[in-house]
Design brief:
alpha/beta; 11 helices; 10 strands; about 35% helix
Length: about 325
């Protein structure tokens, strides 16, 4: 015998079913609007830098956090020559994410430049001119005719060094004996007496400089006197700011003191080829693991939610923008 519900109970059942459908619809809408759905997956390539630089150390720390937060994403780190190399790799589709300084990003005009997007402003690189402690060099203007490590061709170090040498009133090709080697070789060459000075652009402190200071007496040369001439060059030099290397950045240096220099911001860069969900997930991991990474990579302590969205000259990736909207008070 069929069971017949009273009319009132049938009405309540229909109302409950309708309410359930509405709730389900709202849930589906919210999931779509917030990027819900399957967790990001697949292989990504993260371009870092030279083996003894902060980019590479930061990348290795971040790799551990991404493995925990995005378990279906296979992150492959690739060392590089630095910012300009990283930007080109991204633009040409040979890397998925990378760290790059803003001047290198702004200077790139090659294939795929319009596809570049940013996920976050990270920390600043500080320009460091390193000399033996007994050197007579007190300014970049004193480098004339000396053997100077300027970074590999295509490196961010050399990009800034060329601008600084020009600001010092010197000709890069004629007035200094430029040695095109990176931070993996420059400390050793300085210690062996094969270099008189070298430039380095990196987060504070840089392990290679600390290691050198442990074994060999060095000091940092101020670059503050070049800020004005540097900015008058125009172009990408607008991304350089006056800064100070604090005395405690390299306690290994005997009688350390603050040194005036210039700094340039770093960005976490990707392209518009990257899915919003992946960009959002990587951005979340970068911001929310600042303290853990910063315990080893001190420069990462400067990553800040309040400043991370200021990614000039690049627009935010829409996935990164979605993350920032989700955590906005």
């Amino acid at each position: 015998m069929a069971l017949t519900l009273p009319r009132l109970d049938r009405r309540r059942a229909l109302q409950s079913a309708a309410a359930g459908l509405v709730a389900l619809g709202l849930l589906l809408w919210w999931l779509l609007a917030s990027g819900g759905g399957p967790s990001p997956s697949g292989r990504v390539t993260f371009a870092t830098g030279v083996s003894t630089g902060v980019y590479d150390t930061y990348g290795r720390m971040l790799e551990q956090d991404l493995a925990r937060d995005l378990p279906d994403v296979d992150v492959r780190l690739e060392q590089s020559r630095g910012s300009p190399d990283n930007v080109e790799r991204l633009a040409r589709g040979r890397a998925t994410f990378a760290i790059a300084a803003t001047d290198a990003v702004a200077a790139y005009r090659g294939e795929g430049a319009g596809r570049l997007r940013a996920c976050a402003r990270l920390y600043d690189d500080y320009m460091q001119l390193v000399v033996p402690r007994g050197s007579s060099v007190r300014s970049a203007r004193d480098l004339k005719h000396l053997r100077v490590g300027v970074g590999d061709d295509g490196s961010g170090v050399q990009l800034i060094t060329r601008a600084l040498i020009k600001a010092a009133g010197l000709d890069f090709d004629r007035d200094i004996r430029a040695k095109r080697v990176g931070i993996d070789a420059m400390p050793r060459l300085l210690r062996q007496g094969k270099l008189d000075a070298f430039f380095w652009s990196g987060g504070l402190p840089t392990t290679a400089v600390r290691t050198l200071a442990h074994a060999y007496p060095i000091r940092l040369v101020q670059l503050g006197d070049l800020t004005g001439p540097l900015h008058r060059q125009g172009g990408v030099t607008r991304y350089y700011r006056a800064a100070t290397v604090p005395a405690d950045a390299y306690e290994e240096i005997r009688r350390p003191e603050p040194v005036k220099t210039i700094a340039v911001p770093n960005l976490l860069v990707t392209t518009d080829r990257v899915a919003p969900g992946l960009a959002e997930g990587v951005t979340r991991t970068v911001i929310e693991n600042r303290d853990r990474i910063g315990a080893k990579v001190h420069a990462a302590q400067k990553v800040d939610l309040r400043t991370a969205v200021f990614t000039d000259p690049l627009a935010l990736h829409k996935g990164a923008a979605r993350y920032y909207r989700s955590v906005k008070p």
